[in-house]
Amino acid sequence: MSSVGEGSGPGERSDPAVRVADLRVEYGSTTALDGVDVTVEEGEFFTLVGPSGCGKTTTLRCLAGFEEPTAGSIRIAGESMAGVPPESRGIGVVFQSYALFPHMSVGENVAYGLRFSEPPEGTTRDERVAELLELVDLPGFADRDPETLSGGQQQRVALARALAPEPRLLLLDEPMSALDARLRERLRVQVRAIQRELGITTVYVTHDQEEALSVSDRVAVVDDGRIEQVARPRELYDAPATRFVAEFLGDNNVFAGTVAAAGDRPRDAAAARGGGDPPQLRVDGGGTLPLPVDAGGGVRTDDRLVVCVRPELLRVHAAGGSDGDSGDEGDRDRVSDDGRTDGAGTSLAATVENTEFLGDATRLYCDWDGRDVTVRTAGDRSFDVGDAVAIGVDADDVRVVERE
Amino acid sequence: MDRRVGAALRRRVSDARPGRLLRRARVAGPAALADRFALPLLAAVTALLLAVLFYYPVATVFVDAVVEGGRVTFGPLVEVFTDEFYLVRVLGFTAYQALLSTLLSVLLGLPGAWVLARFEFRGRDTLRSVTMVPFVVPSVLVAAAFYATFGANGTLNAALSAVGLPELDLLPSLGAVLVAHAFYNAPLVTRVVAAAWESVDAGAVETARSLGASRRRAFRDVVVPQLLPALLTGAALTFVFTFATFAIPLALGGSQYATIEVFIYSARRQLEYGRAASLAALETGVSLSLMALYLRYERAQAAERRGVRTLARRSLWPDSWSRERAARRLAITGYAVVVALVFVAPLASMLYASVSVDGRFTLDAYRFLLERQATGAAFQVKPFPAIVNSLLFGAAALAVALPLGVAMGVLTTRRFRGRWLVDALSMAPLAVSGIVVGLGLLRGLVFGFEAFGYRFTVTGAVAIVAAHAVGAYPFVVRTVAPPLDRLDRALVESARALGASRARTVLDVELPLVWPGVVAGAAFAFAISIGEFDATVILAEGGGTYTMPVAVERFIGRRLGPATAMGTVLLAVTAASFVVIERVGGEFRG
């Protein structure tokens, strides 16, 4: 572990801001982190998201030096952090509980880190404090008692305090979780703006997938001590790499099944028209789903697949007549509009089991021969529990997430 | 170490990198390194101090039990263990009186827990805090108070003769010893049971009721199982404390009702150290086993419950009366009378006796305390030096016990392997009686030991301060550790991330936030030192280092006035300590 600055010297341009390699943390016989690899680039807003107990906070605590990894290495700006105590790592940390020192004023809190490091050249400590309070939009709060502040204000003070000594890495551990939903949204916009302004490398831990998607440059989805996928938010949402990611980020419909040769269902108009043999998935428990042509590359008949379709990509119609009939009118329109004529469509005959009005949309929980299918529809058409519906699925909207 | 300095230097180089938006200068160097090792150093110093002040002296007692004249001999030990007198009369009686004391304490304490937990009335909170008083009341004070009340010239006999009834001869008696023990331990039972009762979730009781349980049944099935562990805790602690009782049987029991500690003391007075050590080893063995059993049990019970809705309290004066309600209030009234007799009457009698002679008001007793008592033989206990000694020893013991206790509190709230051992070792002084500690200090340090070719000895005064510090610091630990433990871990980690070293975090963040606990701990430590009798009397024997409690004990039965006057002074000091503890808002996990 005595590898300080070993190999490439610190400070070289090529060093990423943070490089975590094969990080393992074990508590007795339980494994909290099972080989985590993460690279965060300079200035990046990087988020670790996952359910509670997945290891995201443990990873952050290892970065901060609050926890000693069982194995693996952590490098910040190229320097090994092995044996480096938290106070020498050049980090700023913001906790869910704010952790403002209750026996100090707001100003003293912000100035605390400046007891151990010089303020930036040309500024005094007091100026630095004022500057930071300005930055978090709390000018003139220096003399206030932290306990008289609201939760959101306290969290901004905590952010100012963490930033005052100019850390090279900002670590945010569920900083919004104790705040109410509306405030959370406002604050995360503010945090993101400040992060951009300072260009500070930030590692953010949250269990809230919406938060992760909305603020991050890149997101790592963590489950059970392992990283499932690291990607930009949109890619993560559109092309989840694993079943877990598909189910964890946003609503999703996930199905497992076996690839069947096209032509199993000759009645499917789109498939017939497309010529060729677009692949289909015979879903476990009955019924088929279309597969996108580009998924066909590696897909062979009898392969086992897990696929997903986002609820907002499904279209729902009142069931009329035979399966996949009138409702497919819309399908065809959309297919041609998008120019994706090579895709095939299917209609699923389902029953509405429950409805949720969401304001800008309605969520329908449907039963498709014993499988649950969730549909999010923005249309003004309302459905009742027990209604028979046809759910239109476009081949291009079906994502293959896993091959077994 | 070099590596760290190197890393720090390199970091500064990398921070100076041009074009870097964020930069961080670091203070490094020898000071920072010293800072990093401050906590391990603290642990080492604490361990060393405990070893010298406590473990070594107590170990010498055990060695004394088996070594005589430089030769290993099990003579005294065998004698003690085979002699029917020691096993039955001494050990048997000690356990017997402890059992009776425990029963009486539970009997007297349990209704108090019920009243405190289930009824709302003015002064409830005050009454609740007053249950903490026995922790700081010197045992000798209780003895003096009982003498003033039930002694031959006490207020009880005065009252009886005033109404023409025959006077009673109540002292010495086993009954007096038991009631005095109950004076101490019933409030302890009240405290722990009331705390458990108040943490019963009203929702659980209501659930049981909604499932069809009657009120009585719900009480039996839901409340009682939650009270039993607390009751057992109170009873176990009472047994341990009363097993190691000394001052009370010495003053109130006479020779018929002497416990093992009294025998150890008399063996020491007769300079029979081998016998004293054997008895002490026996007693400490029993006490430590009981304490270990208790701690194991406590650990098993240690699930902390939070955020429960407590059972609603009823008014002591109900809006409407029923037969049952009236009966309960009558019972409470009866209980209040008993409480007044046991707790208030003795203290009131002591105050009265200190300012009166034959029913006449006089301050002679206090005047006596302030006189240096020019007359009298050199071996006699003089009152004024006792007061001065007490205050000096109290201040010195505080100066040792407070840093020791705070350091221990800081160390025991760290998470590390083997913490339970540190916990146990640091709390051991609570389970080893003052007599044994005193004996050990006498044999180990006052008589001296040889090392590096020198003979080290300390004076009796230093040994007394050591004994007081050892007796007092667990109380500091117990007032400082809980708030430290409850401190948000993120506070400490924030300070670390901002650049503070571990030791610096203790000074900047942790100590300021648990300051009330530190002050309360200091008050506790001072009160314990002022009231300490057991070790002091062992160490002060024949010297000029006696304290107020020793003086009170000497005066009891001879000069009731001065005994009660000095008792009153002691009471004032301990009451002041109690007020500090209560006002500063310290809490005690006892």
Describe this structure in words.
- The complex is a heterodimer of chains A (404) and B (590).
- Chain A is an alpha+beta fold and 404 residues long.
- In chain A, 23% of the residues lie in helices and 31% in strands.
- Chain A has helices spanning 56-64, 106-111, 125-135, 151-163, 181-198, 209-215, 233-238, 243-248, 269-273, 328-337, and strands at 18-27, 30-40, 45-49, 71-76, 79-80, 91-94, 169-173, 201-206, 218-223, 226-231, 253-260, 280-283, 288-290, 304-309, 315-318, 345-357, 362-368, 371-377, 388-394, 399-403.
- Chain A has a 6-stranded mixed β-sheet with strand order 6-7-8-3-9-10, with helices on both faces. In chain A, strands 13-12-11-14-20 form a 5-stranded antiparallel β-sheet.
- Chain B is mainly alpha-helical.
- Among the domains of chain B are: 1-29, no CATH class; 363-590, MetI-like (MetI-like fold).
- Chain B has 26 helices and 8 strands.
- Chain A binds chain B through residues 2, 4-5, 10-11, 64-66, 77-79, 83-93, 95-99, 101-103, 112-113, 115-118, 120, 158, 161-162, 164-168, 171, 198-200, and chain B through 3-4, 6-8, 10-11, 13-15, 17, 20-28, 36, 488, 490-491, 493-502, 508-509, 512-513.
